[in-house]
C-alpha cells in the first residue's frame, strides 16, 4: 500500500515537472514571436517613415527618371530613322558609283576605238600577200591585194569583237580611209607596200574562228589568188593615233 502511494506521488511530481517545462517553452516561443513581429514592424515603419521633403525629392527623382527614359526612347527612334536615311544614301552612292564606273568603262572603250590610248593584249595577225606571178594571167590586178580585200578582213574582225586594229602597225580609227594606188595601199595618207599585216586585239579563238568560217573571208580571199595567213598572238601592242 505504501509503495503504491509512493509511485503515485512520484508520478504526480513528474507530471508537474513536465508542465513547468512546457510553460517555459511556450513562454520563450511567445517572446520570440513578439520580438520578430516588432522588428518587422520597425523595419516597415522605417521604410515608410519618410519626411515630406524626402518624399518630394524621391518623387521628383522618379519623375526625372521617367522623363529621361521617355527622352531616350525618342532619341532612339530618331537614331533609327537617321540610320535608315544613311543606308538609303549609301545605297544611292553605290548606284551612282556603279553608273560612274560604267561611264568610265565606256569612255575607255570609246578612246580605244578612237585610237586615243595605247592598247595591249592578246589577238591575231592576218597577213595578206600578193599571189604568185602568172604569165598566163593578162590582168596583173587579179592576184594583187586591193583595198577591198583589206576592208573585208577589218570589217570581219570588228564584227567579231576586235577592240583595236592596225595595218602594218598603223592604228585604224573610226574615220580612217584606205585607198589602193597600184601595188601599195594608202591608209589615212600613209602608203604601205605588200605584204599587209593586219593586227587585231581581241579574243584570239573568236577572231580566228570568224575568219576561218567556211565560205567566209579567208575562202573569198584565197579564191581571189591572195596569199592568206593567220597567227594567234599572245601580246600585241598598239600605240595611240597622233594628231586625231
Automatic annotation (TrEMBL):
Keywords: Coiled coil. PANTHER family: UPF0749 PROTEIN RV1825, UPF0749 PROTEIN YLXX. Belongs to the UPF0749 family. Pfam families: DUF881. This is DUF881 domain-containing protein. The keyword Coiled coil applies. Gene3D superfamilies: Protein of unknown function DUF881. The keyword DNA-binding does not apply. It comes from the Bacteria. Residues 58-92 form a coiled coil. The lineage of its organism: Bacteria, Bacillati, Bacillota, Bacilli, Bacillales.
Amino acid at each position: 500500500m505504501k509503495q503504491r502511494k509512493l509511485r503515485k506521488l512520484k508520478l504526480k511530481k513528474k507530471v508537474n515537472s513536465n508542465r513547468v517545462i512546457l510553460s517555459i517553452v511556450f513562454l520563450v516561443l511567445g517572446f520570440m514571436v513578439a520580438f520578430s513581429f516588432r522588428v518587422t514592424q520597425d523595419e516597415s515603419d522605417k521604410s515608410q517613415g519618410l519626411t515630406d521633403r524626402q518624399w518630394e525629392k524621391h518623387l521628383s527623382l522618379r519623375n526625372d527618371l521617367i522623363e529621361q527614359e521617355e527622352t531616350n526612347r525618342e532619341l532612339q527612334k530618331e537614331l533609327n530613322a537617321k540610320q535608315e536615311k544613311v543606308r538609303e544614301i549609301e545605297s544611292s552612292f553605290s548606284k551612282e558609283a556603279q553608273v560612274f564606273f560604267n561611264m568610265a568603262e565606256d569612255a575607255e572603250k570609246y578612246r580605244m576605238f578612237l585610237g586615243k590610248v595605247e592598247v595591249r593584249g592578246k589577238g591575231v595577225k592576218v597577213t595578206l600577200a600578193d599571189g604568185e606571178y602568172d604569165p598566163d594571167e593578162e590582168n596583173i590586178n587579179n592576184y594583187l591585194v586591193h583595198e577591198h580585200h583589206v576592208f573585208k578582213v577589218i570589217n570581219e574582225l570588228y564584227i567579231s569583237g576586235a577592240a583595236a586594229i592596225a595595218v602594218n602597225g598603223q592604228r585604224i580609227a573610226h574615220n580612217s580611209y584606205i585607198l589602193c594606188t597600184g601595188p601599195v595601199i594608202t591608209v589615212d595618207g600613209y602608203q604601205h607596200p605588200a605584204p599587209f599585216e593586219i593586227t587585231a586585239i581581241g579574243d584570239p579563238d573568236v577572231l580566228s574562228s570568224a575568219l576561218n568560217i567556211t565560205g567566209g573571208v579567208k575562202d573569198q580571199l584565197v579564191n581571189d589568188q591572195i596569199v592568206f595567213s593567220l597567227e594567234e598572238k599572245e601580246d600585241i601592242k598598239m600605240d595611240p593615233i597622233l594628231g586625231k
